[in-house]
Structure formats: structure tokens, C-alpha cells
Amino acid sequence: MPIRIDNQLTAQKLVPKIERLFELSAAKILAIEKSWKPSNGTPVFTVKGRYTSRGWTEWTQGFQFGSALLQFEATGEKKFLEIGRRNTVEKMATHVSHVGVHDHGFNNISTYGNLLRLMREGKIPFNEHEKNFYELALKVSGAVQAARWTKTADGNGFIYSFNGPHSLFIDTLRSLRSLAVAHRLGHVLMGERDQKISLLQRLVEHATTTARYNVYYGKGRDAYDVCGRTAHESIFNVNDGSYRCPNSQQGYSPFSTWTRGLAWAILGFAEQLEFLKSISENELDHVAHNLPWNHIIPPRQKAVQGLPDFTLTQILLNAAIATADFYLESGCRDGVPMWDTGAPRLDGLNDYFHKPADPFNFLEPVDSSAAAIAAQGLFRLGTHLIMIYGKRAVPKIPRSAERVRARIVGLGCRYRQASLTIANTLFSEPYLSTNSKHQGLILHSVYHRPNGWDYIAPGQKIPNGESSMWGDYHARELALLLWREARREKYLTFFGGVD
């Protein structure tokens, strides 16, 4: 296994690094707030250490203001609450009603969702009107996101990407959070002739469609079918809903794995497993009853032998385990991956996966943002496995299958330790940005390598030394998750404001 997992690490041991991260983070948030002109659009990634925009969609604004809210939660400094709350009220409304994107889970859960959670957890004063405002925004966001819907030939469907009705992105798993929160708030999508469309039903259908078409299981689906490999995009024929082929917008090819997409899969599946555990069995049974089970995942296409084939949570768990294992097996020794597993010049790096990642090499860039996202997913997946399968009596596993139970719990421990190992790497130099003149927090992030959007400094051959708004946000989110774990506070979930 390429990633060298440190089994001695604990969340408590990382507290000094977490505290240093938030100390550095404070100045960077304030620097962006002071220098950024809203008329320039949304800050996306840095060029020469200063945040700049790049028009595609405005999918990172929620991370900008959400970062201030995470900073407030970690430090208690009210100026960051003011930055996050004021900008959410003044600038995020268009994201709530944005019908043209698949990014609602990024923008609106990071802002309105965090504010509602902070209020429900008693970390900001309770205000009935303010609470209603946040809840209304989250209800509308979930319904608007769910309305962006393509039906598939197998009876399922998916939230289509900004590319159009033919396009299923792996990233959109994280936008299912908007549907989840809106559903828990009692909301539905109203269709033609006042049809009430369940947001939970659409969440489940999108998740299972993604598990089937965007994740590989090593069963010969094509010549490049390696268990856990992911496709950034799946293409469908919109006339009859049939699947056509894999594709990649930001990766090297449809038949290699863009590692940030892989990271989105790990975190997205893990979060939905956590969320579905909070749903009553009766409600889940009703949703599952409406699924076309025979078409979701073929029999025996399992990441862990011994688990049942056709249950909703097992389908998502199979996908989560497959992608997590693939990440651990394809990353570098310190847990930071190259930007794509099939990048054309990797063979010149001489067994790069047996060494710590080198962001200053001259051939292919690493992606620290993928590491930050994957680390959180691994921690959540590991915690879920230990909590659910660590009990002696597990309903879905026969008593005779003790070895299966023990193996799953062992996987959970492995994933948690891998997460801590990656965090230990990211929260240190050369990834942690200690330069007060650099507005980024986590260095060596990559945005869109095929389009050539990333800045390459003089004397360098590849992008390095720069940051991204999503990489910085997810590093803060990971740090907060581990910080709360170390302090034995309530476990952090995206639906904490509605649980």
C-alpha cells in the first residue's frame, strides 16, 4: 500500500498543528476580505499568492464565506461570524435560486447550513426570524437542486451537471447535502399538477446512479476497470436515458482517475451514509421499495465479501470502500496524490508512489485539495464503519460471520488513521502556507490542468505553490472535525442543524 499510515497518530496529537492552522487562517481570511472586490466575481485560486477569479460557475463563493464561519467556530472570534453572516445575507441569495448549476451543496450548505448549525448548537444566539431565514434558504436550495433532473433507462435518475442533461458529475454527490437538509426540514419539490416529489427519493436515486456508473468495481466493465477507479463524468443519451460512456472534464482522460473527483466520491458517499443512518427505517424502506434494485449494482459486485448485495446502505458502502481503498493504493507515501492517476508523464517520476509527494517536481503536479477532501471522507467512513459494525450484534451480518465484522472494523480503523496521516502532512510545510503575504492556506492545489488555468511560476514546469478556495475550505473543515474529535465535542455533520 503506497500510503504509509501512521498508526500512532491521534486527533489529540494533531491539536497543536490545528491551532497553528487556524492562527494562520485568520490573517488570510481577513486579507481576502480587505482586498477582494465583489465586482471581480468570486475568488477561485491564487496567482502569485493572491486570490483571483476564473469564470466557469460561481461555485466557490460559499467556501469563501463559509471559511469565515468555520474560523469563528474554531476560535470564537466574532469578527469572523460577522464576515460570514453579513456576506451570506448580502451575496448568497442568487445561489439559492440558481437553476443552472449542480453546486448547491457547496455554496449553500457552507453558508446558510453552517449558520443554522451554529445556531442549533448554541454557538450563536438563537433568533427565531434568523433561523426561519436560514431554513427557507435551505429548503428552496434543496428543491431547486433536485429539479435539475434526468431520468435514466433503468428507472433511476440523477442531478445533471452544468454541462447539460446528458452529464452526471462525480462532484455532485456533495450537492446531495442540499437535498438532505431540505428534506429534514420537511420540504418537497413541487412538480406539474402539484405533484409532490420526495427530495430523499431523488437523493437516493442520484447516489445509487453515481455508485453504478461513476465508480468501477474490477468486474470487467471495460478494459480499464480497476476496483475503486472513478469517472469524473458519465454521459447519457437523453432521448432514452441509456448510459453511453465515461468522460472527464478536469482529469487527463475518461479512462484514468482524476484524484479530486475520487476524493469527492469518498467524502460524498461517507457523508450520505452518515445522513441515511439518521433516517428512520420505515422511511428508508419506503424509498428503497421504489428503487429498481435489479439494475443498480450487479450481483457479487462488492468491495467487501460478506456484505449483502441489494440494500441501499450496502450499495453506498461498497462504493465508499472501493474508492477509499483505491485512493490509499494510488497516492504517494504521505497521502497527497498526483492530480490524475494516468497523467502522461508520471512514468518519469521513478516510482513516485513509493515516496512522499514532491510538489516541486518538473513533470506532473500534485493536488493538495484532493488530499484535504479525501482525508475528511476517510475519517467519516472509518468512524461510520466502527460505529455501525463495531457492535457485537450487527443486524445485517450473521453472528457466524464474525470475521467479516472484524474485517470491516479493521477497515474503519485503517481509514481513520489514514485520515490523520494525511492531515498531519497537510497541516505542515510545505503544504501549510506560513507566508503572511500569501492569501492561500494550503499550497500546491490544482484547478483545471487540461485547460491550463493554473499559474506556473517562472523557473517551474508545472503548477505549484498556489491555493484554491475549495482546498482551503476543506482543510479548515477537516481541522474543525478533528479538533472537535480531540475535545470530545459532538461529532460534526453537515445536517447538524436539522438532526
The largest sheet has its strands arranged as 5-8-9
- The level 1 CATH classification is Mainly Alpha
Mean pLDDT: 93
Share in helix = 40-55%
Strand content: 5-15%
Q: Which topology does CATH recognise?
A: Glycosyltransferase
Helix-strand blueprint:
Blueprint: H1 15-35, E1 45-47, E2 50-52, H2 61-75, H3 78-91, H4 93-96, H5 104-107, H6 109-120, H7 128-146, E3 149-151, E4 157-159, E5 167-169, H8 176-184, E6 189-190, E7 196-197, H9 199-213, E8 233-236, E9 243-247, H10 259-277, H11 281-289, H12 293-296, H13 312-330, H14 368-389, H15 402-426, H16 469-486
Antiparallel strand pairs: 1-2, 3-4, 5-8, 6-7, 8-9
Helix pairs in contact: 1-2, 1-16, 2-3, 2-6, 2-16, 6-7, 7-8, 8-9, 9-13, 10-13, 10-14, 13-14, 14-15, 14-16
What does this structure look like?
With 499 residues, the protein is mainly α. It has one domain: Glycosyltransferase. Helix content is 46%, strand content 6%. The strands form four sheets. The protein has a three-stranded antiparallel beta sheet, with no helix packed on it. Strand 8 and strand 9 form a beta hairpin. Helix 2 runs parallel beside helix 6. The radius of gyration is 21 Å and the shape is globular. The protein starts with 14 loop residues before the first helix and ends in a 13-residue tail after the last helix.
Short description:
The protein has helices at 15-35, 61-75, 78-91, 93-96, 104-107, 109-120, 128-146, 176-184, 199-213, 259-277, 281-289, 293-296, 312-330, 368-389, 402-426, 469-486, and strands at 45-47, 50-52, 149-151, 157-159, 167-169, 189-190, 196-197, 233-236, 243-247. It is mainly alpha-helical and 499 residues long.
